[in-house]
Structures are given as structure tokens and as C-alpha cells.
Amino acid sequence: MSNRSPHADVNRSAVLAHLGAHGPASRADLSRALGVSPAHMTQLTRELLADGLVVELEQAPSQGGRPARMLGVAAAAGSAVGVKVVADHVAFVEVGIDGTVVRSAAREFDASATTALADLTELLSDFIADARSPRLLGVGVGIPGSVDNQASGVVDSVQLGWTQLPVGATLRRALGHPVLVENNVNALAMAERLYGIGREHDDFLVVTIGTGVGSGIVLGGSVFRGAAGGAGEIGHIPVAEDGPQCSCGNHGCLEALISETALVQTARARGVIDAGDGIDALRAAADAGVAGAFAVFAEAGHRLGRALAGLIHIIDPELVVVMGEGTSAWPHWSAGFEPALRSALIPSRRGIAVAVETWQDESWAQGAAALVLATPFDADGIAGAEGELVRERLVSGSGGGR
User: Fold this and answer.
1) What is the mean pLDDT of residues 24-48?
2) Three-state DSSP class for 203?
3) Which DSSP string do the residues of 14-45 spell out, in sequence order?
4) Which run of H or of E encompasses 49?
5) What is the tens place of the pLDDT at every residue in 153-164?
6) pLDDT tier for residue 28 given thresholds of 50, 70 and 90
7) Domain 6-73, architecture per CATH
8) What is the pTM of this model?
9) Sign of the Cα pseudo-torsion (249, 252, 253, 254, in order)
């Protein structure tokens, strides 16, 4: 492999990530998208072809002259592992550089155990041992809580009962791979920026509903983390002074009123579902036209809409993307959400688009894997030294330990 400058290496990474995120492209398309001269792009793609990281595909239609050859990412260009951590289980995925899930798994996990971090390390090590790609770029970990920064990965999580837990340092010592740790909704926002509708927008919000309520904020094409990595905690906006106690210890938080647990408790108290029933029974009742069940979701949508209107006024996004387990009942949420959101917005912002994306449980883990795949676009250095290691592997073809 030829000697290359650090600048050339970053450009090589950007070419691969762009092809992974947007699909096949011609050299001219890549040159325009990445701000690289046509001559330099020709040299970069020649090296990538020689190293087996990209392949030439079919010719693009021509408006005259010689048809352009399209380039795509080679299947062996590398993969990333993502893990979603919640209180009672972990979910894993291995994804290709284009974000496609290669394989997935889920395992029981007790976040409250004194051996939780050791258990997580063992489970993750077992999953990595069966990696399909010989070129593992790194590991992304999505956590429901605050993370100081992606590279060090010190976690504070009310949901998991973790305080200043050194997740990143522990995992990277044991695994020998780059490890990036992030709030799980921020990770989803990054995945949306790379692979979803967010590719077309520089400023947007990702809002998740389900077991909790959260948001990821993308400004200027980058995820906004705040001073301590805790930006976007929409679930802890106080909305009812005399409301129920939240998991954070405060009373009347949005999450305490519209999370799955809260909706089930409300439905049981009203006699809409039986004492032993859960969210599935509540959704089934609403689907069947039970007015009381429909009302529980519509009221939650109303609260979400009003709270989100406040965030929209502050951030001024182009788009809101709603995701999470709760979207399976979105038609019932929407009945309260849409009127509340639009009426609470100032006239100039009432037309903001709201996109609701279909949800699979592995999406959380896929978002975590995007932490690794996003590093070529990490102009702000959010991924720190771990991101540099990922980039080194991407351009060198290495996938082993440190």
C-alpha cells in the first residue's frame, strides 16, 4: 500500500463513507460532494480500487460523451458493531459500511448487577468473535443516559442505575478495538444523518417515544451534545407541577406522563385495560376502537405536541423525525399530537414537516454502529482519539487489535 498524507487519508475515508451513505456515485459526483478536485479524486479512487475498498459498477446514463463509471463500496470494506444497552437486555448488530445489518442478536442483561460491566464486556466479546467481516472498524455503544464524550465514554444513567461508570475505557481495554459511547438517541440522530431522511437536512430533531422519551438535535449537520453530553432530554421537561414522580426523582416530567409505563398506569387506573395488561393490550384496544384506549394515546400525543413546540421555537429545525417503539401506535398519538403541535407554534413555523419512521428494536443498535461509521464526517473531533483509530483502520485495511 502506498504512502499517503494524513489529508489524503481523511479524503479516502470521506469517499468510502459517502458511498456507504448515499450509494453508488461517479467520480464527478464525489468530487462535487466532497469538495475535492477532479484530478485528486481520480487519484484517490485509483488507490481505493487498488486496495479493494471500492469497485466499479455499471455505467451511468450519459447526456453526451463517454458514460461515467459508477463506484460502490466493496463488500469487504469493513464493518462496525453496535450495541444497545437497556436495563434488562442488550441488542447487538454488525453492519456494513453502508449501514446494512449483516447479523443481529439479543441477550438478557441485568444493568443493576455489580458485575454489569464485566457481563457486558463478555457478551460483546462473544458477539465480536463471530464477526462476518475480517475488517472490524470499531464498536459503538448506545446508552440511555448522559455520556461525557464519545471517546472516554463515562456514563451517568438513571435508567440503568449507573453513575460515572467508565464504560468506554473498560470495553476498549478488554476488546482491543476502538470503542465509541454515546447517548442512544444522539446515536440514532447520527444514523439518521448518515442513512435516513436527515441526509437531506442540516438542522433537524429526532424524537423517540416508547419506554422513555428523548430527542437528538442535529444543527449544521452535527449532533449537538451540550456541555456534558446531555442535550436533548425532552423527556425531563417539567409539564405538570403536581404530576407523578419521574425516574429522575422530579415530579411532572413529560416522560413520567407519556412513557409506556405511564400510559399503562393511566389505562389501568381508568379501567381501560386489566391490572395485568401492558402496552400491547392498550394498543390492541385502541386499534379495536375502544374510546378510552384511544383517549390515553391522544392525550399523550397532545402533551408531546405542546412540549415539542417549545423545542422547535428554540432550535428552529427544518424537520422533526419521530421514532421509537411507541410509533407502532402513532395513528392514535397523532390525533392529539398534530392539533396540539400546530396550534402551539407561531404561524411561521406551523408548516414544519414531521416524519414518522417505522421501527425495529435493532434500530437502537444500528444507531450505535453509526457512531463508528460517522467518524469520517467528524469535523468537530467529537469522537476524539477513538475516532482517529477508526479512520486509521478504514484507510489502512486493518481490523485487528490495537
Assistant:
1) 89
2) coil
3) HHHHHHHHH--EEHHHHHHHHT--HHHHHHHH
4) helix 38-50
5) 999 998 899 999
6) very high
7) Orthogonal Bundle (1.10)
8) 0.81
9) positive
Beta strand ranges found along 201-292 (DSSP E): 204-209, 213-219, 222-224
Query: What class is the 79-190+362-396 domain?
Result: alpha beta
From residue 111, give the alpha-carbon distance in Å to each of 89, 120, 144, 184.
Answer: 8, 9, 12, 15
Q: Are 261 and 253 in contact (CB under 8 A)?
A: no
Cell 467518524 found at: 375
Domain boundaries, the chain: 6-73, 79-190+362-396, 202-317+325-356
Query: Rounded CA gap, 316 and 310, in Å?
Result: 10
Q: Using alpha carbons, select from 8, 83, 210, 343 the residue that is nearest to residue 16.
A: 8
* Pair type for strands 154-157 and 204-209: unpaired
Total residues belonging to the chain = 402
Alpha helices in 144-215 (DSSP H): 167-175, 184-195
Strand order in the sheet with 54-59: 25-26, 69-73, 54-59
The residue written with cell numbers 465514554 in the block is 153
The predicted structure's pLDDT at residue 234: 95
Helix H or strand E encompassing 166? strand 162-166
